[in-house]
Amino acid sequence: MKRFIEEYDDGDDVTTFEPLDFDLDRIYGWLVSTGGTTGMIKLAALKHRTFFKKMRELKTMFRFFPRGDEEENQNREHMPVLHLPPVQWITSFFGALSSPAMRLTKVMTSAPTTTEHVIDIINKYRPVMAMMGPSMAAGIIKSEKECDLTCFATLTLLGAKVHKDIYLQLKKRLRPEVPLHDAYGQTENLGPILTPNPTGPVGNCGNCPFDWQKNIKLVDPETGTEIKKPYVKGEMWTKLTGFSEYYNNPEETANALTEDGWYKTGDILYRDEEGNYYFVERIKMLIKYRNYHVVPPEVEAVILEHPGVHYVSVTSIPHEEDGEHPVACVVKKDGSNVTAQEIKDLVASKLSDSQQLRGGVVFIDEIPLTSVGKIAYNKLKQIALTAQRE
Question: Where is the AMP-dependent synthetase/ligase domain (predicted)?
Fold first, then answer.
């Protein structure tokens, strides 16, 4: 640090420093990149006052996140938190501000966050909290390398659909009293949209927090009609503390925001009678086979039941008559001899005709990820188009 200061010190007299006076409601504080899982990365522009308001909301929300034994924590100089998101993710922005306030110490790495490396970090530093994507969680629970997860006081999965099989296996590896959160949020909404409900039904990604009910709704994406009945799928629209625009991108901003200020998330969800929400899929990721919408996670959940499958992601290839055909991109477990026919037979035995793998199966070494650790669906689709399908 001393060398850094000496190299970059501009020589200004710090005793004469005065903070800049500016309009918190007009000036952008941060430009945060979106995930870019289904297209080009966009920059969500966040104003200063908006961000501070969200910090206050999150402080209330995080009161419900256990941080381990309080007596033990009082004797700790720091409480380690495993921080895996890259610096451009909204989670990193909040982590930089919230960690000191919550007396948490971020455990980070500059090395690639491979499954083996993350396991080593957990075993060595024993973090009490962490957020990770479902693909990382799947890698940990299916790795031959032992990973002791009993250090966690709370664990949160986010960034993609969490398959039931992965959730239940991970839950078994935690201490019985430790909550496993299936969280739902977006960069444009400055993180969480729903409050995780780990005591609710498996598969729920939370319920509506605080007094947000009037600012969240499900809408039929084709008619724009609000959906009020339970178990009916619709697009999540929000009018929460969020971004002002996509920076220098008026076209995408206009597509995302309605005239009366609702933000269209592009995500399909439904809710039950108790108000728990369930993530289905991104609208852009639904596969259109003839007059049917095929939901990739439903097909993936069946394929993951095969003992020889490590991970899978379902995409599609174009078809002249049918529109699209589903393709399963499969990562085998080490030593597995699972065949494409076995996978297709498994899907045929459990799913409807429209959900069959008419595009075939592609075996790959790993699922391509974006810079923020989410599945890179554009790359995955290219693999499905160019690789040998069985």
Answer: 34-241
Strand-pair category, 226-227 with 216-219? antiparallel
Domain boundaries, given as residue ranges, for the chain:
286-386
Q: What is the mean pLDDT of the chain?
A: 87
Does an H or E element contain 244, and which?
Answer: none
d(CA 230, CA 17): 57
- Sheet strands side by side (includes 28-33): 28-33, 43-47, 245-246
Q: pTM here?
A: 0.81
Q: Fold for domain 286-386? A: GMP Synthetase; Chain A, domain 3 (3.30.300)
Collect all residues with Cβ–Cβ distance below 8 Å to 230 and sequence separation of at least 6: 270, 271, 272, 273
At 64, the pLDDT band (50, 70, 90 cuts) reads: very low
**What is the distance, to the nearest Å, from the Cα of residue 83 to the centroid of all Cα atoms in its chain?**
14
Instruction: Specify the DSSP element, H or E, that contains 74.
Output: helix 70-74
Summarize the confidence of residues 285-309 as an average pLDDT.
Answer: 92
Tell the burial category of 9 from Cβ atoms under 10 Å away from its Cβ (0-12, 13-18, 19+).
Answer: exposed
Instruction: Report yes or no: 236 and 185 within 8 Å, Cβ to Cβ.
Output: no
What DSSP designation does 213 have? G
CB–CB of 299/347 below 8 Å?
yes
